[in-house]
Amino acid sequence: MKILKFLASARGLLMGAALLLLLPYGLGALSSNASAAADAVQPIRLTTTPLPLNRDDPGQTRIGALAFLGAVQVRSTAEGFGGISGLQTDGRGQFLAVTDTGNWLAFRSIERGGRLVGLEGAVTAPLLDTEGMAAIEKADADAESLAWDPATGAVTIGFEQDHRLMHYAGIDPRRPETLARSATRTERWAGMVDWPRNGGAESLAVLPGGARLVIAEDPSHDGGHLALLDSSGEIGGGEIRRLGIPGLPEHRPTDAVALDATRVLVLHRRFNLRGQGAGLTLIDLAPALAGGTHVPSTELARWEAPVTLDNMEGLAIARSGDRVFLYIVSDDNLNSLQATIVMKFELLLPQ
């Protein structure tokens, strides 16, 4: 999806012919199975290949504040596998993801000695709207971000193109039949109306107190990124304010997750003539939650090849005591020249 905007730029046109090979599959209509409902909840087989952090330096174990704890490349012969754009975990090895072709994907991690070595138990199903229908057109199915409360099963999914938030109740990937549930509500925030078609709710974070942060992918004139903050903690209630979220040079935010009651981790992705890159920042919403507009930001990590990466789009957080672990997944755009990669890190914040 995002590569289309790159091709539209002046520099992108110079390499347009070559980059056409990287365009995601299925920009128009989705597969004929898109209108299926409950009976479309299907197990799929995954194969995984372990990857090093740095193929040229086997001894590298850290990127900035991130300590490497394993990575795998994921493949499947299942039709339409890939396009993962949002990721969450219950912290006990169960993961819930959404794809930008309008599907749920659930799976479990396989870990040995605290290191990620594989995935298993994958199940997929189409996202259903409030009428119990799956999207037929790509423009209606472009799920880009995900927030999930494993304790209650409440899920919020952010979409772009048709900018909106869709809410689900009782979603439990350990009970795959719940993935066939219809959305309970659709929200359309006025502040999203003028967002670019392919620059919508790319990142979504729900803080412990219920405040919701949605970050647009496209940069604003000052190099930051437009964001909307609903501090009410209630769906459909409270004032939604515009903020500017600091970015990373040449990067765009692709996912976000709350670290605590005021701080949010933001994943960033680069795709330009210099190639792919990824980064992680920590933003502090305390001033904004108190009514201000300033959002302090700290860069935690930035990496590019030969360090393992692809089109990094999903970020999930897990905790064990005082330790914090992050899982990052790439969106392969359903393209054979790209890869679905899942990486695990421990977050080691500066003291």
UniProtKB/TrEMBL annotation:
InterPro entries hit by this protein: Phytase-like_dom, UCP031900
Signal peptide range in chain numbering: 1-36
Domain Phytase-like per the UniProt entry, residue ranges: 80-333
Coiled-coil region(s): none
UniProt keyword terms in alphabetical order: Signal
Pfam families with a match to the protein in the record: Phytase-like
Protein name: Phytase-like domain-containing protein
Species classification: Bacteria, Pseudomonadati, Pseudomonadota, Alphaproteobacteria, Sphingomonadales
